[in-house]
Amino acid sequence: MHHIKANFKAFISYFFILLFCYAAISKIMDFEKFQIQMKDSPLLSPFSEFLPLFIIVIELFFGRIVMLSENSKYRTFRKFYLNAHLHCIYWSNACHL
């Protein structure tokens, strides 16, 4: 049972690393569209100059944090919190488009 639990935690960790890196790379590949979407949002348009780059850097940084987390007990909570927080920001932006 312990072996399954350890493998599951490792799988979740790698999944979050992949998730954050994929999100950042997909935004980099279509950066112009991402910038236009930010400018079209009434809530985020005042920050549309620096916010797209900032979001990409933060997503790559969060992926790195998940890679370097030492304590697996707190790592899971951090990943859940970061994921929930970023999705709340994403959906609040998507609802205004």
Automatic annotation (TrEMBL):
What residue intervals traverse the membrane?
50-69
One GO cellular component assignment for this chain's record is: membrane
Q: Where in the cell is it found?
A: Membrane
- One Pfam match, given by its short name, reads MauE
* InterPro entries membership: Methylamine_util_MauE (IPR009908)
Keyword Hydrolase present in the record's keywords: the answer is no
Ranges for the Methylamine utilisation protein MauE domain? 8-67
Biological process GO terms, please? Answer: methylamine metabolic process
Q: How does it sit in the membrane?
A: Multi-pass membrane protein
Name of protein = Methylamine utilisation protein MauE domain-containing protein
Say if the entry is tagged with keyword tRNA processing.
no
Keywords from UniProt, A to Z, are:
Membrane, Transmembrane, Transmembrane helix
Secretion signal span: none
